[in-house]
Write a sequence for this structure.
């Protein structure tokens, strides 16, 4: 009898829960928790969820709580599409997406369904509203990040000859994305491009490619891969005694790289668009509290910031009385130098330009940690939009 | 047939009928009636799953014709689907109407499939598998690097299919469109298997030497199998491209080929109905596992994360269990279930 009572009260509690869930803001989270990018997808998704927790603890957005539904799509396009449809049927008003595979496959669908999407696929072409009217992200796109690094190196160059640069990247959409833009800007600045090599995301050895490169004696080498391929490249470069400075892109350098590659990372440069855990910014106090002081990867911080910026757009949309897809999109586009508590450089979106900012953070990598060198900010050139 | 003990055929035509009895015909009619009405009762998520099943059925049934019936293992099916997707997409982007574009996509894929099928004359079994694996890698490389045509790494944005001014821009509408094509594909393959070509395919699969000695032109029929199979793969690709409205090279990588192979293995090699079962099973499996993980996360927050990570393992386990305990796939289970009810309560 007691069990029956417990059961009935549980059912009643569930109904009560569903009943009170009506006035909530529903946000879908598409994550990779078990697929090829899960090592970085998990901390990113944790960041999003912790930000939701923080906002709800603060009383929600204008009194309305955020309700989330997270689906793991294992970095598989078919599953991403069905997950998106499931979230849509559930009634989400905005989507926190994840990687290149899902974001690009869904570009047209989110535009058709007027579903504002904040994702972590920083491909340049997603910043052009003519192509992707409902896609946003809170980091400078891959091309802008590469351009920012080139700018920094060129300014710091003090020898008579032109600096020599080489590009190493996987033959993969993500690796290919910033290469044309990078080459163009390198030539514009006055770099000499001395080499180009492919190292796959799963490769365990890069000696042949690096041997060819080291004969060209580059001063700088762009590494556009993910953690494991970057670790392989840096270790092999150390073995071959290359004295070039390697610069790794946003998904190729984080706290995991330091432990994977060890001393091989020393002196090289990693690009990021968010602060690292423990930085002295207002948002870090909140994150420290939420995580109980347990250090998180920089991807976590970007996930947190992505949700924080989206929440701000939703707040504006609610104030305009337009809590729907077009309302949140338009509200996002009114953001001007919005500061997500110092976690990333300020964010602005424009109706004809979804580039959040033109800033990239350069970190000096060391096996004991990352040290912020500078935040490089480029001009917002119109001809760079979407490229 | 009623009143007789079992089925008796008095002509070959009757024997090769798809549906023999009135009961089979009426249950098939009922099945299609339910399917046609389903979108009115399901939400857009469930309808979108049905769309994906329809497209997967076309892909699986075409691979089953090549691998299951003709015995030519193909690890390049995902890339062939990609060829159809890109070819159809390029045509519609340059202003072609959808249906001619889709047929052109199918024809292009058939041509590409036949070119990569040429080595099949000399190569068998695992060697052919490697040759088609090469096709997979080469084609994806072309998708990625032929930027002017395919959009390269950035991909290609497309519009929903438009037929005679009517746009199929919702999941509901897409469901009916893909259903028509998947029914046509299933009927096409079923009919091919009942013709001379179909019997030639099976003969080649069973033993190529005896096939040749009874007068079957191996090269011609193998190429034909590659051609027809790739044509249907191209149709599946064209539908997929216009259903998702955005295609990138990532969508057609080796994983897709493996998934289609898994479909026909789980469904039943050489069986048309098995391809359908396999497509349904493998499209729904990740969804079911995801829902299970969601339910479990309500009770054991920590277990569900491990469960998610185990999903690929569970998928592999199911495949292995099928290979061990039911090598003939779901189609055989279906036969057993049917005969159980037919013979009930007598065991024989």
């Amino acid at each position: 009898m007691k069990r029956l009572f417990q059961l009935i009260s549980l059912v009643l509690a569930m109904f009560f829960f569903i009943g009170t869930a009506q006035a909530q803001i529903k946000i879908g989270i598409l994550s990779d928790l078990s697929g090829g990018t899960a090592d970085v997808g998990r901390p990113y998704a944790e960041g999003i969820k912790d930000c939701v927790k923080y906002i709800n603890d603060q009383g929600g957005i204008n009194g309305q709580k955020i309700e989330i539904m997270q689906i793991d799509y294992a970095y598989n396009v078919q599953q991403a599409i069905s997950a998106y449809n499931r979230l849509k049927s559930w009634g989400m008003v905005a989507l926190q997406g994840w990687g290149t595979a899902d974001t690009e496959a869904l570009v047209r669908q989110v535009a058709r369904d007027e579903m504002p999407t904040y994702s972590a696929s920083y491909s340049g072409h997603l910043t052009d509203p003519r192509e992707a009217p409902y896609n946003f992200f809170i980091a400078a796109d891959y091309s802008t990040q590469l351009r920012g690094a080139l700018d920094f190196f060129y300014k710091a160059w003090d020898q008579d000859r032109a600096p020599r640069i080489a590009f190493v990247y996987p033959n993969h959409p993500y690796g290919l994305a910033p290469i044309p833009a990078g080459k163009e800007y390198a030539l514009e600045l006055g770099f000499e491009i001395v080499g180009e090599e492919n190292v796959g995301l799963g490769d365990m050895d890069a000696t042949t490619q690096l041997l060819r490169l080291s004969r060209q004696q580059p001063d700088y080498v762009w590494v556009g891969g993910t953690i494991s391929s970057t670790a392989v490249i840096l270790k092999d470069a150390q073995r071959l005694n290359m004295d070039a400075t390697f610069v790794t892109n946003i998904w190729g350098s984080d706290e995991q790289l330091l432990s994977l590659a060890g001393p091989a990372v020393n002196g090289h440069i990693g690009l990021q668009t968010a602060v690292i855990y423990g930085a002295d910014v207002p948002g870090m106090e909140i994150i420290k509290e939420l995580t109980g002081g347990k250090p998180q990867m920089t991807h976590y911080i970007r996930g947190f910031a992505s949700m924080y910026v989206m929440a701000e757009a939703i707040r504006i949309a609610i104030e305009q009385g337009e809590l729907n897809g077009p309302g949140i999109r338009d509200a996002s586009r009114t953001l001007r130098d919005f500061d997500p508590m110092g976690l990333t450089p300020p964010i602005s979106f424009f109706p004809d330009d979804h580039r959040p900012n033109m800033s990239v953070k350069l970190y000096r990598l060391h096996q004991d940690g990352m040290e912020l060198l500078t935040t490089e900010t480029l001009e917002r050139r119109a001809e760079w939009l979407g490229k | 047939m009623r009143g007789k003990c079992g089925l008796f055929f008095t002509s070959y035509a009757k024997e090769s009928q798809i549906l023999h009895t009135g009961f089979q015909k009426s249950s098939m009619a009922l099945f299609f009636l339910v399917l046609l009405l389903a979108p009115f009762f399901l939400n857009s998520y469930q309808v979108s799953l049905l769309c994906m099943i329809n497209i997967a059925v076309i892909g699986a049934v075409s691979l089953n014709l090549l691998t299951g019936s003709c015995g030519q293992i193909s690890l390049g099916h995902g890339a062939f689907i990609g060829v159809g997707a890109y070819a159809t997409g390029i045509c519609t982007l340059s202003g072609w109407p959808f249906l001619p574009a889709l047929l052109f996509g199918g024809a292009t894929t058939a041509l590409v499939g036949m070119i990569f099928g040429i080595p099949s004359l000399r190569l068998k079994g695992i060697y052919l598998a490697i040759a088609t694996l090469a096709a997979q890698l080469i084609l994806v490389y072309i998708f990625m690097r032929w930027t002017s045509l395919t959009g390269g790494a950035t991909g290609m944005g497309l519009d929903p299919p438009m037929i005679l001014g009517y746009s199929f821009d919702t999941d509901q509408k897409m469901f009916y469109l893909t259903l028509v094509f998947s029914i046509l594909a299933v009927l096409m393959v079923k009919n091919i298997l009942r013709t001379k070509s179909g019997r030639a395919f099976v003969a080649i699969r069973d033993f190529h030497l005896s096939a040749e000695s009874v007068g079957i032109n191996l090269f011609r029929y193998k190429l034909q199998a590659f051609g027809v199979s790739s044509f249907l793969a191209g149709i599946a690709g064209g539908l997929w491209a216009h259903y998702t409205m955005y295609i990138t090279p990532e969508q057609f990588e080796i994983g897709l080929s493996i998934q289609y192979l898994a479909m026909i293995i789980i469904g039943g090699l050489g069986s048309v109905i098995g391809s359908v079962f396999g497509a349904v099973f493998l499209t729904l499996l990740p969804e079911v596992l995801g829902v299970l993980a969601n339910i479990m996360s309500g009770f054991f927050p920590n277990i569900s994360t491990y469960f998610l990570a185990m999903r690929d393992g569970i998928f592999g386990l199911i495949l292995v269990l099928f290979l061990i305990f039911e090598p003939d796939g779901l189609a055989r289970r279906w036969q057993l279930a049917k005969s159980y009810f037919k013979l009930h309560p007598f065991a024989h």
Remarks:
- The first strand of chain B starts at residue 156 and ends at 157.
- The CA atoms of residues 76 and 135 of chain B lie 6 Å apart.
- DSSP finds 16 helices and four strands in chain B.
